[in-house]
Specification:
It is built from 2 helices and 5 strands; from the N terminus they run βββαββα. It is mainly beta and 90 residues long. The protein has one domain: Beta Barrel (OB fold (Dihydrolipoamide Acetyltransferase, E2P)). It is elongated. It starts with 6 loop residues before the first strand and ends in a 5-residue tail after the last helix.
């Protein structure tokens, strides 16, 4: 395994912590603390409890990670911006 090689795992956000950190339960029942990646902050991608995410981890510390992707959920409620987008004034 190369030094720069990272592990990518899927999980579900179980808790929102201060300083843009999240507690994530991975699919293998391991719980970690993860922070939001810079691109997600830049594009203002919000992460909430119950969201399915992809986490990037280093093999050296398996208790911390970085959230790099939030999976879209078809049954999730529409955001206010999406509801407003369909509004038409008469």
């Amino acid at each position: 395994m190369a030094k720069e090689e990272l592990l990518e795992l899927d999980g579900v956000v179980t808790d929102v912590l201060p300083d843009a950190r999240f507690r994530v339960m991975l699919d293998n029942e391991h719980e970690i603390v993860a922070y939001t990646a810079g691109k997600m902050k830049k594009h203002r991608i919000r992460t909430l409890i119950g969201d399915r995410v992809t986490v990037e981890m280093t093999p050296y510390d398996l208790d911390k990670g970085r959230i790099i992707f939030r999976h879209k959920d078809e049954k999730a409620p529409a955001t206010r911006a999406q509801a407003r987008k369909n509004f038409r004034r008469r």
